[in-house]
Every structure is written in C-alpha cells, then in structure tokens.
## 1
Amino acid sequence: MTKTLRYSTENIQLIFDNLKNIQTQGKARDFEIRIDDFITVQRTNDLSLFYCYQNALKRESNEVSFILYKGNSRKYDKYVLIRKEAKIFSPNESTTEYIESRVKQAVEEHKKKLEFERLKEENKSQKERIRELKQKVSGLEEKQKGDIKSLIELAKGFISKPNASGKADEDSPINGAENLEMAKMITHFKNRFGEEVFEKALGVGLQLAEHPKIIEEVKAFINQKLNNENN
C-alpha cells in the first residue's frame, strides 16, 4: 500500500505514534525513511532514530517517504509526504489539466530558483563590499592612530618638563591635558587647518617652546602683520 499525504507535523506524528503503539505491544515494526528516494534512515526498529531524517532535509527537498515493513519480509506500507505544494493527480481531473498544472508548477519553481540564486549572488557581493569597506576603515583608523601618536610623542619631547632625575616624564600630561584629550585636540586642529598647515604651525610652536625668550617678539611680529592686513 502506498498513500500520499501532505507533509505536516500532524501526519508525521501519526506515523510515529503508530510505530510506538505497535512497539508497546511487544512487536516492534521495522521502518525506513527516504528523502526524494535517497535513504536517510536505514531499515531499523529503533524509534530514537525516527527524527534523524530531519538532519538531511533541505529547502529543495520535495517529499519524505516513510516505509513501514511487515514483519521480516520486504513487503511494506509506504507513506509519501509531499513537502511542496504540488497538486496531486485526482481521478476526476483530466490528463490535460494535470499536465498544465504540473507545467505551471515547474515554471513557478524555476522562477523561484532563479530569484534565489540572484539574491544569493547579491548577498555575496554585498558581503564582499562590506569586507572591503571594513578593511579600508581599519587601515585609515590605524594610520590616524599612528599619526596622532607620533605627534604626541614629538610634542612630549619638547614640552614635557624634566623630573627629579633630569629625564622627561613620558607619562606626564602635556600642559595639563591628558594624552587622550591631547589626541582629540590634535585631531580637531588637524582637520580644521589641514595636515600641511597644522604640521608647519606645530613645528613653529615647538621651536618657540624650545626658545621661550623670543615668544614675545614673535607675538608682536604676528600682531603687527595682522594689523597691517586689517588696515
């Protein structure tokens, strides 16, 4: 006997309960489970293996067959559970109608498959693009960290005051600002004035820090130049 049913939790449970009921009566019945005619659970009467077929079940799988053997013979009852919404041929349906229905179904399945492949490729392309962008951002962040660290170390070399041993304390704040605050400040002015102008200005500032006696003269010169430009 072969019976075709809709693939559902209820129908699967009915088959399982039937096997379990027979087993409780002391007469375990052998069963075998196939997915699209491929054996996934070999002939056995161990009910703990019943649901193992689900590990091999795929999205494109069409049907699951439960074969219940009669005693030790090769005779069996077969329950074919249809997963797809395929229209099962009815004796009241003409051959032409059945063929048209199957052709329509095949066309729809082909369209779905093409759409699935398209989405899969699109997703793959997007993942690759995201990976490239992450690498680019990571590279820029590392470069920025390196630039800021170099500037901080350079500034500390000129500005940090010597400690009791006569050596500059590398962990001390710069002009009262912690390293993180200093890094933010450097980044701000670097973005505001541009890298070239910022580096030149920083160089002049460091030279003044090294020769503080000329600071007032330089300030006076700058103010004079600004006043002349304003006039």
## 2
Amino acid sequence: MIAAIFGVVILIEQKILRHFGNYAVSAFFWTILLGAATYFARMKAVSDINSIFPFDASALPMTLVAGTVIQLMIFLFWPLVVGAVVAAFYLVLKVRDSEFWSETHKNPLAVIFSAALICFMTGMSAFYVDHFFSETKRLQILYRVAHAADFSSNFNCAGVDPKQYHVLFVGPEQRRISIAEIIPETFIYFGPRVADIMQEVTLPGKESLELNDCLPGIAKTTDPLAERINELHFEIKPINN
C-alpha cells in the first residue's frame, strides 16, 4: 500500500506539480492541505478512541497517533480510486493508440508496465483501506494498539493480578488506573494468518474500563526476628539439687 501511495505521489509530481514548481503558492497550498487533513484525521481519531474508553483520548498518546494515521489512510481512499481509474484509462488509451507502438516512440512497454502497475497497486490499496479500516475493525485495531503501546503490565496495585490484567495510568500523579483484561493470544492453524494487530477482538464495555484508584500492594513478609526465634531450639534440662 505504501508503494502504491508512493507511485501515485510520483505520478502527480512528474505530471502535474513540476509545472507549478516555480510557484511558492503551490507549496503553501499543499502544506495547508496536509495540515487540514491531519487536523480532521486527529478529530476523528479522538472520536473513535472516546467510543471505546470512558476517559479523554489524550491519556492514550500512541493510540491517538495510530488513529490519526488510520484516518489519513481512510482519507486516501477516493484519491486511490481516482488514481486507479485514471491509470486504467491511460493504459487503455495507450494500448489502443497505433502511433504509440510506432518505432519513433521510446520504450512503449515500460510505459505500459508502469501504468498497469500503478493501476493494480492503487486499486489493491483502495480495497485494503475499505476492507480493513471499516468502523468495527478500526476500533478493534485501536484497542489492540492501546494494549500494546499505552497499557502497562508492570505495576503494583492491590487486588490487580499482572498475569490477568493490564493497566493504564492516567493523570499526572499516576494514581488513577483503567484496568483491562489481557487480550488472549490467537492461533490460526488453517487459512491465511494476518498480523496480530489486525485480528478480531471483543471490545469490553466502557463501564469495565472506568478509572479506579491504584492502592500499592503490600508484600507479605514475615518478621525477621520471629523467624530467628523459630530457628532457635531451647533445651530445658532439670536442675539437680
């Protein structure tokens, strides 16, 4: 998918942007466009995260970044579709053009191959975005990212077993936590294996992720003096008068 996007960008740069290279307004326009797309993508990512967790999305910085990237990729769906259609139309025109195959044209097969490759890759990328980034799958991906990047398995909170739960520390004092069960590993023995982050997961209810206080657990230690006394053996002997 990244290669397809790169190919589309190269095509735009070679065929369109080179004619505007001497105009500073074009660079300003693309900068504003990218900034606006990132801003709206972040807004949608915050909305997705808030639909999963009952607290502010800023408590999950890595998940917020992942959600923004996903939304930017979703924004590219229609540009990818348009790129695939344009590449296909260009390919058909060149194949049917008799002058294109004349000896005067330099390396026509390379042009045909490039257009076909761009058409295929942009089409597959659009299908990938539409298939894997639907609302349900998108939320599942964000939940897995939160467990992998923002939640912690290293903590000391009374009543919370690190072998069964992950926790997210919220707030500057790091005293409030959200507790979530560890996502069990899934094994696929038959069929195509997808990346772990793409595998389906059951989202918990927002009530189970409400913030709680983290009370430090007290380790069970015995009194060293009592241990020493237990080690001593007293022998009581009768007193001979």
## 3
Amino acid sequence: TAAGFIVPFVAYLPTEELGGSGLVAAVVAGIVTGQGAARWFTPEQRMSDRVTWHTVELLLEGGVFLIMGLEMSEIVTGTANGIHGIAHGLWIAGAAFGILLVVRTGYVALLVWGQGRRLHPRRTQRLNAISDRIDEIEAGGPEQYGDRGRHITEAGWNRRLASFRRRISRAMSDLNYYRAAPLGWKHGTIIVWSGMRGVVTLAAAQTLPADAPSRHFLIFVAFAVALTSLMLQGFTLPALVRLLRVSNEDDENLVRSEQQRLAREMHQAALMAADDGSLTRRDGSPFAAEFTERVGPLFLQSGEAEDEEARDILELRLALIRVRRERLIELSGGGQFGSAALRRALAELDASQLNVELRLESAD
C-alpha cells in the first residue's frame, strides 16, 4: 500500500522538474507497478492494495462531488452575475456534450471497424506464413547468412527466434480472442453511451486558478456537462442494453472457458514440478522424493490430503502454489487469456496461499 502511494509521486516530481509531463509519468508508473504486482508483491500486499484503492477511489469521487455541491451556490450566483449568464452556459454545455458523443462515436466506430479487419482470413494466413518462415530460418541456423551469421552467437540466435515466436504467438492469441468475443455495432453503441463524464471532468475544472477569467462560468459548464451525462446516460443505459438485447452470457462463457484452461495449465506446471523434484520449502530445503511421490498426486487430484495439518503437507501446498503462480505470470504476457480470467486465477492463488500460511503460523 505504501508503495502504491509513493510510486506516483516518485515518478511525477522528477519528471516535472525535468520539464516532462508528470501526469504521464505517474500513469506509466502505475501501469508498470500494476503489471508487476503478481511478481513483486505478496498476497497480503495485493489484497490490501485492492481494498485501500477502492476506498480511496470512493472517498475521492465522493469528495469531489461534495465540494462541488458546497460550491454550487457560489458558482451559480457567479455565473448568473457574469457576462455570459446561465442560459449561455447551459447552451455551451449541451454543445460540448454533443461534440463529446460525436467524437466518441467516431473513435469507437474506428475501433469496431479495425477489429473486423483484423479478423480477415488473410491476416491469419500471413501469420502462419511468418511462423513457417521462422521454422525454416531456425532449421538453417545462422550459417545461412554467411559472414553476418558468423558473428551471431548461439544464445543471441535463440533469443531472437524466441522473440519473434512470442510476437507471432501474441498476434495469434489476439485473433483468437477477437473471434471468441467479437465487437459489433450493438457493443459499440453501448460503449459510446456508457462513456459518461463525471469526477475527472469536475476535478479538472477545480484545478483552474482562483483568479482565472470566467472561472465560475467554466466550472458551471463542466458541472452541467457532468450532470447531464450522468443523469441522461446513467439512467437510460440499462434500457438501451435491454433494447439492443445484448447479453453477457457469451462473455461469461468465455471467461469460464479461459479459467478452465488456466487451471489446466497451472495444474500441468505443478505436476511437472512435482515429478522433477524442483519443489522446495520456504527455507529452500527440498522435500523428500518419497514424500513428494506419495502426497503430491493426492493433493493435485483433490486439493486435500490426509492429515493436512502436517507441516510438510502445508509446505508442499505452498510450493505448488508458487509453481502455479509462476506459470500464471508466464501466461499473462502471452495474450492467450483475458484479464478477467487472469485476475480471478491470481485472486484464488492468493486466497489459497494466505489460508496455508495462516495454518503454518498456527502450527508453529
């Protein structure tokens, strides 16, 4: 939690001093931290971060609207007594709201159209052709490039081939995902209408200097846009979904299928680790081969074993959880699974690890 609060400022302040965009730096730092959470943070830290940031988000959003409510009387009075007036402010707010919808519609339409083009059979054929070409290059070795190939080490050669294969695999995984969950005009319509303006718009308006010209008028326009968006789009969105007859059943089936595939991948990784004897306790000491052969398969099949309070069995469970998490981290970078399935799998592993660690503490 402390790292989550500190990292944005560590990225923001030096970047601003160097003349860059501190906001962009903070966003990038947040993305990097979020991507590395499964690798760098403990289960306790991840669960604490989720609860903490949900609370902070609730407090900040509520605080912005509370401040706006307290200032509303002064803002309306200042706008009414200003040179523009309330009617002019409402007209500008309506125009801004319409422009936002038009721009968002155009952007989403391009996204839907672009996804449709990605699903063209020629793209799959091209990726397969590239994959076959990589196989040919690998079979020929660096020697096929003459003098240039002689300067390439075997490690460098394998690293380049692996990098190309990862790119092709990621592209193929993206295509498979788009085929399983395609976006149509109905989905695009919902995306456009669900893009409501709210706390960010109001927070940005609040950053205007106190002596800025027409400050009350500008904040009034921002508030009118946010209020119109939240009230109009928020109250009509459920009706729009029902009207378009869009169901989330396909998405739920896709996530469920991905969770099952993830479970199989992690289960297979745990089986391999149990077979090759690479499992260790938390202190690094290995398990006895006889113990792993006897207890490991029982645990992997049912998730339970006799006398599960025994310390070695709990240690074995922790070791298997570590193996599964490592496999999950590997799979998360390949594009084969959606974020919902990955988050669910990580949360289940975290819950299992916390459960086992609490039992180990009570056994000490």
